[in-house]
Design brief:
The protein is an alpha/beta fold and 184 residues long. The chain has one domain (26-183): Trna Endonuclease, Chain: A, domain 1, CATH 3.40.1350. It is 21% helix and 21% strand. The protein is built from three helices and nine strands. The protein has helices at residues 70-81, 133-155, 177-180, and strands at 36-38, 53-55, 64-65, 85-89, 98-100, 105-107, 111-115, 119-125, 161-167. It has a four-stranded mixed beta sheet. Strand 8 (119-125), helix 2 and strand 9 (161-167) form a beta-alpha-beta unit.
Length: 184
């Protein structure tokens, strides 16, 4: 039976696209005991970053976020400081319905960024993992999602979507948003 088992490539099929999907809130209640930090604050040791809830954002769609790494926290600083960024968010677990791994695993990108010219789904990833099959599978489905979102938004006068996969060692708080567009 195993010799005849084959899993083929699946296409993303859009049954319906809503003109508006509410922004889903995060649940950080388990982190409350560790307290809040300002996102501009240097946290040491950096391994403790995931323990805190960060506040102080002006462009974010939520008042507070948690970060899994220094890379993610630093990228938020870039987004907050860059004048070309209008709004950004760290999507909640079920904000997007993007499935990978033969449609068995749900993918949540690190960031969604809106600028004057587009909306960008962004993943920051350890540089040694960028070419892994799992990361590339997520990227493939995220790009398809962005393509279909662009096709839909074009019909209502919206902005195009694009996917950026950025190696962690390229994220620096001194860089501008425009520099990251080369990772499309």
């Amino acid at each position: 039976m195993q010799a005849h088992f084959h899993i083929g490539e699946h296409e993303i099929k859009v049954k319906s696209v809503a003109a508006f999907m509410p922004i889903i809130d995060h649940n950080y209640s388990r982190l409350l005991k560790n307290g809040y930090r300002d996102y501009r604050e240097n946290v040491t040791p950096i391994s403790s970053i995931p323990k805190y809830i960060f506040r102080g954002f002006e462009k974010a769609l939520h008042l507070e976020y948690k970060f899994d790494s220094k890379t993610e926290k630093d990228f938020a600083v870039v987004l907050e400081n860059d004048q070309s960024v209008i709004k950004w968010l760290r999507p909640a677990d079920k904000q997007f319905h993007i499935y990978y791994n033969q449609h068995s695993s749900l993918y949540r990108p690190d960031f969604v960024v809106e600028t004057q010219d587009g909306i960008y789904m962004v993943e920051t990833k350890a540089s040694n993992e960028i070419n892994s099959p799992e990361v590339q599978d997520k990227a493939k489905f995220a790009r398809r999602y962005c393509q279909q979102a662009t096709e839909y938004t074009a019909t209502i006068g919206g902005k195009p979507w694009a996917y950026l996969l950025i190696p962690h060692d390229e994220v620096m708080v001194t860089r501008s948003w425009g520099w990251y567009l080369s990772f499309k």
